[in-house]
Amino acid sequence: MNQQYQNRQVLLASRPTGMPTKKDFEFRDIPVAEAQEGQVIVRTLYLSVDPYMRGRMNDSKSYIPPYNLNEVIAGGIVGEIVESKTNLFQAGDKIIGMLGWQLYNTVDAKTVRKIDESMAPVSAYLSVLGLTGLTAYFGLLDIGQPKKGETVVVSGAAGAVGMLVGQIAKIKGARVVGIAGTDKKCDYLKNELGFDAAINYKTTKNLDQDLEQACPNGVDVYFDNVGGAISDAVMNLLNDHARIPLCGAISSYNSTDDNMGPRIQSKLIKTRSLIKGFVLSDYADRQSEGLQELGIWLSEGKLKYEETIVDGFDNVIVAFLQLFQGTNLGKMLVKVSDPAK
Ligand code: NAP
User: Fold this and answer.
1) From the CA of 156, how far away is ligand 1's center (Å)?
2) Using an 8 Å Cβ cutoff, are 208 and 179 in contact?
3) DSSP line for 198-229
């Protein structure tokens, strides 16, 4: 065991029913494993909390295996190499990887990737230049294919994926309508990001009416981050040949009922719409293309991004649960430590 560093980690203690609680997780203090030949020790700088992690807490079949009980939870982490037993990295290098929710990860060097600090702050590799940026990019452009003058509606619009979807749709010349959970978020979308309209789904008296008003020419692309009643309302406005990238369904992640909604087959047939679920790993071989274009838009000032940063490793569960309360504007991250170099 490494004597220099003390580790602290978060394990899944029980499978949540409905909304998770702190009791479903356990913090454990243990020594840091010694790095073997070919391995590195990574100090966590920022840790990403993501809605999809809720699905991995269930014991059910999905595109990614469930977390095991009493094992460290894994997710996207940006860290600093503090010890290296390989010539691939040296101490001080900043990396990204799917690592454990812990202060230090001792891992094979080949499982992490060096990041370029000169291009953007390191946290951006967990947001606009990472999973959420690429999800917005490929979901919207590959499936949604917005064209100039078309109307794009995005739900979860002020979140990490949603705010990038809206901006990319604007870059492509579309009219963009966002749906989000507070007036502050809606104002931000319109005033800071140039969305054409934004609807607060929590305070609206009539979502159907507000949507109709915001989309006088119907909906050509619906980028669905949330599912549920919000999506039911948007589906009523689909134009012929609409495209619906199904990205997420956060409104049902903690549901314990059957969650039945209206049947939409006839609507899709009548409008000849395309609805397609996707996950980012479908685009694994095109990541560099996405990163390059996102990087260009960022450097040209065409894309803005936000991060809501919760301070301190011990607040990781709070930060994760806040995703379901909508506390975050942009990407929700936990800052765990400062880099030494
Ligand atoms: P996010 O939008 O930054 O955070 C989640 C947001 O969801 C919250 O801020 C909240 O905003 C909203 N929300 C929470 N509960 C809700 C509910 N019951 N109804 C409506 N909105 C609710 O998260 P993200 O990382 O960008 O992910 C957005 C969606 O994309 C999630 O569904 C996620 O699972 C999915 N996703 C999919 C992929 C993929 O590969 N397919 C990759 C990344 C993310 P409000 O204040 O607006 O309620």
Assistant:
1) 5
2) no
3) EEETTT-S-HHHHHHHH-TT-EEEEEBSS-HH
Q: How is residue 245 annotated by DSSP?
A: E
Q: What is the pLDDT of residues 250-306, one digit of tens each?
A: 999 999 887 788 999 999 999 999 999 999 999 999 999 999 999 999 999 999 999
Distance from Cα 155 to the centre of ligand 1, integer Å: 8
Residues 291, 275: Cα–Cα separation, whole Å: 25
238 and 137 in contact (C-beta within 8 Å)?
no
Q: Please tell me if the CB atom of residue 51 comes closer than 6 angstroms to any atom of ligand 1.
A: yes
Give the mean pLDDT of 103-112: 98
Ligand 1: distance of its center to the CA of 328 in Å?
Answer: 10
CA–CA dist 37, 297 (Å, integer): 40
Task: Measure the CA dihedral 119/124/128/131, to 10°.
Answer: 120
**Domains in the chain, CATH or no CATH each:** 2-127+305-335 (3.90.180.10), 133-282 (3.40.50.720)
Atom of ligand 1 nearest to the CA of 327: 9
